[in-house]
Amino acid sequence: MKISKKDALEWFEFLSKIPGKKEEIEEKYEKVIGSVFRQIELSVKNSHKTTMENIPNIQDLKGRTFFVGDKLKFPKGCISCLFGTGLGGVRKTNKCNLTCKFCYYHDNLDNQEVIPEDMWEIGESRYYEEDIDLLLSIQDKPSGIAYVYLEPFLEIEKYYSVIKKFHDAGIYQHLYTNGTLCTEENLQALSDAGLDEIRFNMGASNCADNIIANMKMAKKYIKAVGIETPMTPEFLTSFLERKDKILETGLDFINCAELHLGEDNVNNYSEEKLYMARRGYISPLWSREITFKLMKMSQEENWGIVVHDCSNHTKFSREVNKNSKLKMGFGSNTYRSEFDRTLFHIFLPILKDENFKFLQEEELPKEYKLINCEDDILMLVEDNMSEDEFYNGEIMEDYN
């Protein structure tokens, strides 16, 4: 089924106005709903393919991701993620000193679960620091680990001894930071402990001059230094304003993360043109387009660094690789949507955009034309709602 854009808009406008949960409706009309998402995604993929064909020297890393630049500078933390045993997140700090519009935890930033004193979250379980020796003596060593969630430098002194344990075990380690709390002393201490790679979220500060200085300072002590930040229009503007100063830091790579949305940041972007990749991550159209712009510019201007397309496709590949390492069945995959329900209304802007075209369109079969399904849908809604809920809903005013 290749639904037309006109029919897709009519269906999603109708479904977005229906109050309450829609599980039965989504199940019964999955062919229509699925067709809308496929049509959007196929058009986006076609646009991406065309754009990538015009990026000089773009390299395909065995189908898992794309990048430009010196392959020797490709971040080893990403190699571990895409070819090794996965991301291997180690968590400790549940607070952040900044609030970013794009943050995955934006609406719930102050309510993140506390990791108890003297404990660490490893493999979604809690361990004391001394337990790490036990883990390493029993389980297979991960190819790499990453210190994530939320801003480690708020209590960075707690990290040194743990980093040293993993370093002594020969495990590659990288750490994420917004860079605001870096000092010469704590960066040197991280280096002495054995940290291999540090990634600055420059979007958090709009590429502030003091963060650029801290990134340059980090390069004195830590072997691999780069930027990893969600690609947003705000980041692009601030990056281009300070591009030369940033490149002069000696950084090795920029991981251009395709911004994806969850329950706690989707409201900040619900008016943007969004698409869903493989019925999984939801992202604004402009996010990966910014990545492509930076990749092309880096080649035309010979930046001398890696610019990595950390896209939804890359994250899909990560999950496929991880499940392979876990010896799960062939084709097993844990790449999923971040939402437990379909938010039909957030796809209205892209469906209303006259410049966004579906590649192919077909007339809907008679049984899937909205005019023939409305009464059936309203009956499903009524069966699952109280009388007051149903008659007070907008659906009656707009469609009865």
Could you characterize what this model shows?
With 400 residues, the protein is of the alpha/beta class. The protein has two domains: 98 residues, no CATH class; 270 residues, Aldolase class I (TIM Barrel). 41% of the residues lie in helices and 14% in strands. It is built from 16 helices and 13 strands. The strands form two sheets. Strands 1-2-13-10-9-8-7-6-3-4-5 form an eleven-stranded mixed β-sheet, sandwiched between helices. A two-stranded antiparallel sheet has the order 11-12. Helix 3 packs parallel to helix 11 and helix 7 packs parallel to helix 8. The C terminus is likely disordered.
Write a compact overview of the structure shown.
It is built from 16 helices and 13 strands. It has helices at residues 5-17, 23-28, 30-52, 76-83, 131-138, 160-168, 184-193, 209-221, 233-241, 243-247, 285-300, 312-325, 348-352, 370-383, 387-392, 394-399, and strands at residues 59-60, 66-68, 89-91, 119-122, 125-128, 144-148, 172-177, 197-200, 224-230, 253-257, 274-276, 282-284, 306-310. β7, α7 (184-193) and β8 form a beta-alpha-beta unit.
